[in-house]
Description:
This protein is α/β, with parallel strands linked by helices.
Amino acid sequence: xxxxxxxxxxxxxxxxxxxxxxxxxxxxxxxxxxxxxxxxxxxxxxxxxxxxxxxxxxxxxxxxxxxxxxxxxxxxxxxxxxxxxxxxxxxxxxxxxxxxxxxxxxxxxxxxxxxxxxxxxxxxxxxxxxxxxxxxxxxxxxxxxxxxxxxxxxxxxxxxxxxxxxxxxxxxxxxxxxxxxxxxxxxxxxxxxxxxxxxxxxxxxxxxxxxxxxxxxxxxxxxxxxxxxxxxxxxxxxxxxxxxxxxxxxxxxxxxxxxxxxxxxxxxxxxxxxxxxxxxxxxxxxxxxxxxxxxxxxxxxxxxxxxxxxxxxxxxxxxxxxxxxxxxxxxxxxxxxxxxxxxxxxxxxxxxxxxxxxxxxxxxxxxxxxxxxxxxxxxxxxxxxxxxxxxxxxxxxxxxxxxxxxxxxxxxxxxxxxxxxxxxxxxxxxxxxxxxxxx
Length: 439
Ligand SMILES: Cc1ncc(COP(=O)(O)O)c(C=O)c1O
């Protein structure tokens, strides 16, 4: 018999959580179905965040449950190195068939963070294999979030995620972010102003010399920093500058992938083709950890040289392409197809936009933003206590039966893509009440 105390909360050190605050008054989720979680005290909580931007098809989807359980019965694990299993190949073919352009090759990881590390390593190794080993610099952007490992943290631009961890990767620089409420507040969809901020990349090219730069990584729409949309023309301009200087462009689509913007990927939504795409989260509907890097033919083919029998890329994870994760991903794609979630053709995005912007004029709201099924409510910070107002909104919303996510003083909304109008109405009704009631 175990001698542990089941309800002792002290042993688990929770990630990205105010541990002491949580343990004073825990918020435990014990079940999930469709658009709702059930809390430990038996309440239905409307999921305004698709878990953590990952359960795009909602919760407890039968095909995924069955596929995972069947796969566990058939084969629990197969070695990832020098061995394969059919689902890895089937999944890669299906994924590349929905990915636009020539992003025809997939490298599996277990998370978004690992997908980012993998993409950065592919970029460096690609240039070296291509005879341009002098391209070692990586460029990210302020307010970017690319996970928590050393590469992703280094190219990322969220100060709190960086400041405790020393010098990080050398040779990294950052473009300015594109968040500008003075010009773009309350814009519906992509903002008009800010395309010229892409010229920061040109400035960094002049500073470092473009021949030293391997890759630029951006979230096409920055999620974790609080839903920052790319200004019209911005991504196009980044692409152009990368092309002029032989720099690879990586889109981190860990949150924008799999239907979030109303298209399978942000690549489709913005019509700009990167050289690599990172994905995770919606890949398995959040059920089994899995990430992926999509690489273009140009990148992949450079590696497929040298003597046969030689490993071409010295990188990979024990769980790359894990059979159970692949089964979950295949069933997730089936579920997205069944429900038409990668490209919802009804008027939900418009309904969502109108609903988000109906909060204009609510107390302390200084901006509202939206695209696809993503929304953000930016609040005026309390003087001297940044983040406090949004955190109060999060706590109060949970009390009222709605799960939201906050970053700084921004409330980010990313409900499952199966959302219906009645859920949108309920979400806005609760949020509006919460905003009126908190300080
Ligand atoms: C754009 C982006 N990249 C990377 C990550 C990291 O993913 P993970 O938490 O699966 O490591 C996230 C997570 O939110 C993300 O939003």
